[in-house]
Design goal:
The protein is of the alpha+beta class. Helices cover 17% and strands 42% of the residues. It is built from six helices and 31 strands.
Length: 528
């Protein structure tokens, strides 16, 4: 009797366990059909005020097998079964960032209302979820958010956190991407274009080369009318020359209707990329090299320099095609002058009496700036090295303070030769060496010697270079290079020796004639 009772109890217990297992399986399937009604959640942060929708791609159970977490009872929603199968869901859930981003775009294109489990989501928690694979899609972009719309985000809700610990909440920190732009000057002495600076020194008429770096944001494959435009603004002292090159993803790109276009007007240069090209090259680095010339009378001489700035305008939301802009990044080119202080020689150690009316010819080493006569001075540095200095032009006469200057120069060594002396003074045509040096200071009072540092002035994220740096120009280490004059007869100078020789030659002839006349007169008297 007892044995029969035991057998009956066992049968009922087995039946109860079978019913419980069936009930559990039924509950899982019901949860998989809706995506809600479960005990898991997704916590979203860094939504930046944007709005999102959540789609369920697949459901599964999570089990531990041989100390490993595995997915069982995988059920991919029929809307996505041609993209992901039950058999490869676990594989795609482990994709890296690049593959996951591509998969997310494909899944979004197939997203349907039947798989939508939450909408109107900003920062916060979406609860009541079952374990499974989800797609988060941005549906509205905040007008105050300059970042590009968040990439479609795949979320794996498996009851585990990033460290593999049991957790009912999957935390998702959205990575909003805000494009940046950097503008630099390509150092003229670097033939490899590797040295990029924020400030440099050049002469009037020189060409200054610039480099702009940025990156194309990631956009949806169904985005249209995208904007990605670089705007470069030149100051009055700079005249646009050309866009030298454009590279995208390390490859050279030629201007065309389906790549980019260049326009320039009134000192503003725009480089606008085509919408389909933007979409096809998302995430790739863009490098633009362009040049401008420091033009004559418009060049700003002195501490304010000649600034140049650039910014990027880009689509930050492809849902309504709104745009945003980066801050301007600025660079600056200084153009200087040498200053001459003319004083009386006898007072050079005391009162330094200034002399007005002195005019100087200026010589430099750049043959392209030579005027007639083309050459004038040669300086021997060593037996096998001779530097030729070319005639650049003349200064104005020194004023009542004894000052004059010659503008539009790069830093370096020059020679001044006096061609007109102050009234009552001798012309001293001995070439006087004048070294022009530029030193810039930024607002933190750090001195940046553009000469000794090889112009390697660089700051990170500097968007106000023209206010951050002010240049100080010195001649021979002082505000002005001092040149003295002595009173007396004008001595032979460059181009004047012929006249002097004729003067002395004529005087000798007169004296000789006088001697001959006296001798002739004496001879006549004796004969008489």
């Amino acid at each position: 009797m007892k044995n029969n009772i035991r057998k009956s109890v066992r049968r009922w217990l087995a039946l109860a366990m079978t019913i419980a297992m069936l009930f559990t399986m039924a509950t899982t399937v019901m949860a998989a059909d809706s995506g809600l009604g479960g005990s898991y959640s997704i916590s979203i942060t860094n939504g930046s005020g944007n709005t999102y929708s959540l789609y369920q791609i697949a459901t599964y159970d999570v089990e531990t097998l041989d100390s490993k977490t595995v997915y069982t009872n995988i059920d991919v929603n029929s809307d996505y079964s041609n993209i992901i199968t039950d058999n490869n869901l676990e594989t795609v859930a482990g994709y890296g960032a690049t593959d996951a981003a591509a998969l997310a775009v494909t899944l979004k294109e197939a997203a349907s209302a039947t798989t939508l489990v939450a909408s109107g989501v900003t920062d916060g928690e979406i609860s009541g979820l079952v374990t499974g694979y989800y797609l988060l899609v941005e549906t509205a972009h905040s007008t105050t958010d300059a970042s590009t719309a968040t990439q479609y985000c795949l979320i794996n809700v498996d009851g585990l956190d990033d460290q593999g610990n049991v957790s009912a909440t999957e935390t998702v920190t959205l990575k909003n991407s805000t494009p940046t732009l950097t503008k630099k000057i390509i150092l003229e002495s670097d033939a490899t274009d590797q040295t990029l600076v924020d400030a440099n020194v050049a002469a009037a008429g020189d060409t200054v080369r610039y480099q702009i770096d940025t990156v194309i944001p990631t956009y949806s494959s169904d985005a249209t009318d995208l904007v990605f435009t670089i705007t470069d603004t030149l100051s009055d002292g700079l005249e646009y020359k050309e866009v030298e090159s454009v590279t995208v993803g390390g490859g050279a790109v030629t201007e065309a209707a389906d790549t980019y276009s260049v326009e320039h007007s009134n000192g503003v240069v725009t480089i606008a990329f085509a919408s389909d090209y933007i979409k096809a090259h998302y995430g790739e680095a863009v490098v633009v090299k362009l040049s401008a010339t420091l033009t004559g009378s418009n060049v700003n001489i002195g501490e304010d320099g000649n600034p140049n700035s650039a910014k990027l305008t880009y689509t930050n939301n492809w849902v309504d095609n709104s745009t945003s802009k980066t801050e301007e990044d600025s660079v600056i080119t200084y153009v200087g002058e040498l200053q001459i202080f003319k004083i009386d020689y006898d007072t050079k150690d005391t009162t330094k009496e200034p002399l007005s009316g002195a005019v100087f010819a200026i010589y430099g080493t750049d043959a392209t700036k030579a005027k007639t006569p083309a050459t004038g001075i040669e300086t021997t540095i060593s037996p096998d090295k001779v530097i030729t200095y070319y005639y650049y032009g003349t200064t104005n006469a020194t004023d009542a303070s004894g000052l004059t200057s010659y503008s539009g120069l790069d830093q370096g060594t020059y020679y001044a030769v006096e061609i007109t002396a102050p009234a009552g003074y001798s012309v001293d045509s001995t070439p006087v060496e004048l070294t022009v040096t530029v030193t810039a200071k930024n607002t933190s009072s750090v001195t940046l010697d553009l000469e000794t540092e090889g112009e390697k002035v660089s700051t990170s994220g500097n968007d106000n270079t023209e206010t951050e740096y002010k240049a100080t120009w010195t001649t021979n280490g002082n505000v002005s290079g001092t040149i003295t004059n002595k009173k007396g007869l004008t001595m032979p100078g460059t181009g004047g020796i012929g006249t002097t020789l004729f003067t002395f030659g004529g005087l000798a002839l007169v004296i000789l004639a006088a001697i001959m006349f006296i001798a002739y007169t004496k001879k006549q008297r004796k004969q008489a």
